[in-house]
Design brief:
The chain is about 10% helix and about 65% strand. It has about 180 residues and is mainly beta.
Length: about 180
């Protein structure tokens, strides 16, 4: 009877260990690429909410920290900007299927004008056993505001009139990404 109980306990322990190994995911290392899409809600300014897509490429160091460079396109109504940036990402609990992550971007943008760009995001990374993961993050993005000058013709006075609008893409967004 003791042999049967010991054998059952050993088999149960073996099943637990083997199932725990199946839940482990590939720890990120080396080159990684990201493609992310986001919908940004602007805090102020005359611009409507915007849509953006970006790609980032770089390397994971020690399985937790990613450093890379990226490029994106953000558009809203009549205006679009192209941010280029350096990205630092840290993945907590990187050997789990679901793990929190923190991402910071710092750079500039070009468009109708050129200005500073910064981004801070916190979210969740859904990893697989293969070299692939999905991310969902909430982000706050800062774009240095720029002026949009519109020239109108006044028929009554036969003169041109310049109207300045302050364009500001700063806002909060929900970002969905793919990592390979």
């Amino acid at each position: 009877m003791k042999k049967i109980i010991v054998t059952c306990i050993a088999l149960l322990g073996l099943a637990i260990v083997s199932s725990a190994q199946e839940n482990l995911v590939r720890i990120p290392e080396g080159y990684q690429g990201f493609v992310e899409q986001e919908n940004r809600f602007h805090f102020w300014g005359t611009e409507d909410n915007s849509v953006a897509i970006s790609t980032t490429h770089g390397f994971y160091f020690n399985g937790h920290t990613f450093v890379g460079i990226g490029l994106g396109v953000t558009g809203s109504g009549d205006h679009a900007v192209v941010p280029f940036y350096t990205s630092i990402k840290h993945v907590f609990l990187n050997d789990r299927t679901v793990s929190p992550c923190l991402n910071a971007r710092l750079g500039s943008y070009i468009g109708a004008d050129m200005g500073s760009y910064g981004d801070l995001a916190f979210g969740v990374r859904f990893a697989t056993k293969k070299d692939f993961a999905l991310t969902v993050t909430a982000a706050f993005s800062y774009y240095e505001p720029f002026d949009d000058i519109i020239t109108e013709w006044n028929m009554e006075t036969d003169t041109y009139k310049e109207i300045k609008n302050k364009i500001d893409f700063t806002g909060a967004s929900l970002r969905f990404g793919i990592e390979w």
